[in-house]
Design brief:
2 copies of one chain form a homodimer. In chain A, α1 packs across α2 and α6 crosses α7. The first copy, chain A, has 8 helices and 12 strands. Chain A is of the alpha/beta class. The radius of gyration of chain A is 18 Å and the shape is globular. In chain A, the strands form 3 sheets. In chain A, strands 3-2-1-4-7 form a 5-stranded mixed beta sheet. In chain A, strands 10-9-8-11-12 form a 5-stranded mixed beta sheet, sandwiched between helices. A two-stranded antiparallel sheet of chain A has the order 5-6. In chain A, 36% of the residues lie in helices and 22% in strands. The model of chain A has no long low-confidence stretch (mean pLDDT 94). The longest helix of chain A is centred in the C-terminal third of the chain and has 25 residues. The first copy, chain A, folds into 2 domains: 126 residues, 2-Layer Sandwich (Nucleotidyltransferase, domain 5), CATH 3.30.420; 158 residues, Nucleotidyltransferase, domain 5, CATH 3.30.420. Chains A and B meet through β9 and α6 of A and β9 and α6 of B.
């Protein structure tokens, strides 16, 4: 069997997928907490292995796809840097292959998500498109000619660390004013901390927003507006047919996407004279990275 | 003969090119003032025709390439919108073909410049690259797989209107905080107005900077820093091998490019763990758009 494992800032999610096209589905999943960005590398690697083995539940693993929220090199061997993970130029693919005793393929989480959406989701049949994932931080992927465009060094799509506010909020990556400081689970927590308390994570803020809590809704409107402003810049630069939004925070749906669509129109040059791309959710939502990694694992074994 | 005409915010430049590869050169050129963004469309079209006929100097025109600083549609028939030109969804190619009585090809100025650099300049042999033109405003082009990537609607590369400062300076395009408000000939004029007087244009500020004038040098350092910050965002998104900088303001060379290179390193995530692309001048400088348009005209006739 093939398993896909997605490593985000707060959790490690493993999935098994079955079927194809419209029938592609997650057959089983397992989740373990991410040990944290200050944990030893090995602890994160063990968490990945544990999640994969949980899903396998005793069945032999033919291949494991690993989706990581960080800079993955062009050879897809190493995680070079990750704002929310401990790895620094670490040979993650080989380490996990040794740990799991099976074939491992590694890619950036947003590239994995874009692959899943291209194969069986919201990007099927598109040529020029963008995917933005909103989770602990922001990830992204660029689709050109119907394929994930990797860039000169495999690092294309790192949208989260584009500066949107000069000398703005301090980012975990060391820079200031990065887009993900204004539009992410972390931003939600920051925006609601004073009124709702510091115990809430992004998921709980989402639950409150769906229930109508005003502070929670305003927080989503704020990060949604920042999502649209950032997307406007990417649309000016790329001119995509469609922008697909995934990641854990996007599970809230239109509470995030509606303000993003409004802000996109408001921040795009010459909208009276040009197309404004649709902003739509991913099909696979917060599982897109893991699903894409599982598909890559299956392809690696063919 | 084939002529390329570039229409910028302040001037219309026509060139004839000869040779190919390293020997490609501008054999003749002519320049007329741009009538301005509030002039009637026909006046700008007549200026284009006049510049082309000046260069032709009585020789028959086989084809004319036209490079326009604005949004050109995917069919390359219409200028849809331009912050510094009067055209609004105007059938510019057909109008100029009628006026000149010859074949006319139309493209966005930065796409033309990128074409010139790909054929015979700083982008020869590159696969993933970006071109940024700094003139009255900012233009841009995206190179993927060694070709100009046009996007879903032909509008890729409109970097100038990416927001870099929330609620920032008012832009001619109607938005606020656009990148070109902080890095352009207009920005140079604004930064030097109080100390050096309102009569100076970008070219004169450049002359003063070369002569060592402190205000002029600081103005170039300021817009160069903004150039680097903006390029950092594009590098995060695209991961190019190289970033080529052209446009009239870039003629000043390292007075602009050195602060841009420093700011790029300072504003890019994880530089200890990733490649930082070189920031280099175009080969064809302020003439790149016109040269590329001339090459497109020659190709259209083959």
């Amino acid at each position: 069997m093939h398993v896909g494992v997605d490593i985000g800032g707060t959790k490690v999610l493993a999935v098994e997928v079955t079927g194809s096209g419209d029938d592609l589905a997650v057959a089983a999943s397992a989740q373990v907490p991410m040990p944290g960005r200050d944990a030893p590398d090995a602890e994160v690697e063990e968490a990945v292995a544990r999640a994969a083995l949980d899903v396998a539940a005793g069945r032999p693993l033919a291949a494991v796809g690993v989706s990581a929220a960080g800079l993955v090199d062009r050879e897809r061997e190493r995680v070079r840097f990750a704002a929310h993970l401990p790895w620094r130029d670490a040979p993650v693919r080989a380490r996990l292959a040794a740990l799991l005793g099976t074939t491992v393929v590694l890619d950036n989480d947003a590239n994995c998500a874009a692959h899943a959406e291209l194969v069986a989701g919201a990007l099927r049949g598109t040529s020029a498109a963008l995917l933005v994932t909103v989770g602990t931080g922001i990830g992204g992927a660029v689709v050109v000619d119907g394929r994930v465009h990797r860039g000169a060094n495999g690092l294309a799509g790192e949208f989260g660390h584009v500066q949107v506010v000069p000398d703005g909020l301090q980012c975990e990556c060391g820079l200031k004013g990065c887009w993900e400081q204004y539009c992410s689970g972390r931003a939600l927590e920051r925006l609601t901390r004073v009124t709702l308390g510091s115990h809430l994570d992004g998921r709980e803020v989402a639950t409150l927003a769906r229930e109508g809590d005003r502070t929670a809704r305003e927080a989503f409107a704020t990060i949604g507006t920042w999502l649209g402003v950032g997307i406007a810049g990417l649309v000016s630069a790329y001119d995509p047919e469609v922008v697909v939004v995934g990641g854990g925070v996007s599970a809230v749906g239109d509470l995030l996407l509606e303000p993003a669509r409004s802000a996109l129109v408001g921040a795009l040059q010459g909208t009276a004279y040009r197309e404004v791309p649709a902003v739509v959710p991913t099909r696979f939502g917060p599982e897109a990275g893991a699903v894409g990694a599982a598909l890559m694992a299956a392809e690696a074994r063919r």
